[in-house]
Amino acid sequence: MDPDFQPDVEALTRALSLMHEGPTAAHPKALPTALPEKGVSSRQAMEWLAPHVFNSAAYLDSELAAAHMDPPTPWITWATTQWNARLNQNLLHPATAPTARPLEHQVVSWLAPYFGMTGGHMTPGSTLANLTALWAARDCAGVTEVVASDMAHLSIAKAAKILGLTLRQIPTDTMGAMAEDALPSDLTRSALVLTAGTTSTGTVDPLALSGLAAWTHIDAAWAGPLRLTRMSSRLDGLEKADSVAVSAHKWFFQPKESALIFFKDVSKAHEAISSGGAYLAAPNIGVLGSHGAMAVPLLATLMAWGREGLAARIEKCIHVAEIIANHVSQDDRLELLAWPVTGVVNWRPKDPRLFDGWYQSLPQGMVSTTTLRGEKWFRNVIANPSANASAITDAIKAVHL
Ligand SMILES: *Cc1c(COP(=O)(O)O)cnc(C)c1O
Known about the structure:
The protein is of the alpha/beta class. Helices cover 34% and strands 15% of the residues.
């Protein structure tokens, strides 16, 4: 047997301690400029690569990490991701994934009811979940156009383009929510896409519009997991949709790439997006061919925390966002865009000339920027339950320009 395919427990233990150490003082030794003709052994490759991977990484669990929708991940996902790498199950084939397929089914069936859906499947991100949903919309409901707000995620425009559907963009109000009165009156050939937590401002579109079109898809990539919390009612209306996309690598704290697409009528939707093939024992559902057991870390996380443990972490993020918003609204130098509904806080200095100076003075990884109606805003996204509200507000207070 080739030893490189056998568990080298000592080396794997060393891999864990490298991960635990994180950044080291060791200066990374330059990588080969071209594919090496001869390898250096797995152990040496690991030691060589580690400082390149860890030394200048962004640590998403840092108390100041509050800039993007990328969460830190719990250790149970690190462990189970190793198991996945070791087994390398392919969910395309029941024969190579005799346990991974039922485990995905299990986690989907736990989560679907929170969104008023009957089932679905996992995808590597909501970009693909949105594409999958609009594919089902086209082939189940015969839609010819996608209607979405001008704040909808880029993936909606991409999906429309790929599927040959016209994209009709609806303007948004000052908070970034779809302006209902700008909707076309005839939606009988439309897939209406409503966003539950826009990427720029975390705004929730009027979800009560669900059900008005031939197909309603809710892009809940960011805020979907709120359904499992005390803030569930902030997404009321979503349960009337035909499909819902949720990124698990955002507020379900999963390693990338992990997301879910749920359908109201899963049998009909899955049938519309299934393909057979000579070598396939089971129909291939959705966009992906080979895909791995991303359900395993999600299932493990939900078993470890239960709904309550998950909700507590998301609610903590919401709380941090509220403390930041409160601080900003009381700081004479600053302006808050709106009270945060889904953990995204947008703010800026009242004097727009100071924007760049502020950006440079704030700790790296604490804010990102976004442009709304041609004006720049800072954006805090609290995807990190270890984000420390006082450390963040102290960093804001410490800026003197
Ligand atoms: C992040 C996001 C997406 C895209 O999801 P990925 O998982 O990054 O592919 C789509 N829609 C919204 C609202 C998002 O926030």
